[in-house]
Amino acid sequence: MPKEWEALELVECIFELQIWLRGDFVPNIKPRIKPVEMMTLIEIDKNPRMPMKHYATRAGIQSGSFTYIATKLESKGLISRSQSEEDGRQKVLDLTDAGRILTHEVGRQFREHLTRRLSRLNEQEVDELRDVTFTVQNIIEKLETR
Predict the structure, then answer these.
(1) In this predicted model, what pLDDT tens digit does every residue of 29-69 receive, in sequence order?
(2) Which residue pairs, CB below 8 angstroms and at least 24 apart, start in 46-49?
(3) Which of 49, 81, 85, 134 could bond to 92 as cystine, CB 3.0-4.6 Å?
């Protein structure tokens, strides 16, 4: 079990890395969307037809606040809502064709941005960062299954 300060230091380090990687990235897209909306689109792309509560949790916001985000994305023609086949009381979300195109374009632009940012590192540092990333992903998967 890590000491409390070590766990906090780990979270702060991951947060700082995330901020540095994002840097000044602003996607060149229309319609303009907020970061939380983009995170939602990416999550819907990775995990379509999940209940709205799933996306709210992934975005780190309350379900009621997420309804506002879903409504904004729907009004922009980027997502659609439908009844869950498993539980008719729940709404599930899907990307529209426009939402899928926009999400993939932002992904392409962000990969270019990351390539520029990471070009400051030498090959060994990139390999080390990749190894650490895979280690963190494996730990997250283990924690989620326990």
Answers:
(1) 998 898 889 999 999 999 999 999 999 998 888 888 899 99
(2) 48/93, 48/94, 48/95, 49/84, 49/92, 49/93, 49/94
(3) 49
Angstrom distance (rounded) from CA 108 to CA 97: 17
Residue with tokens 């509560």: 53
Type of residue at 83: Q
pTM: 0.79
Crossing angle (nearest 10°) for helices 97-118 and 35-46: 110
Give one DSSP letter per residue of 14-36, joined into a string: HHHHHHHHHTT-----SS---HH
* pLDDT value at 5 more than 70: no
Computed over every residue of the chain, the mean pLDDT equals: 89
Instruction: DSSP for 34-81, please give it.
Output: -HHHHHHHHHHHHSTT-BHHHHHHHHTS-HHHHHHHHHHHHHTTSEEE
Provide the token pair at 142.
Answer: 């283990």
Q: Quick: pLDDT tens for 130-143.
A: 998 898 888 888 88
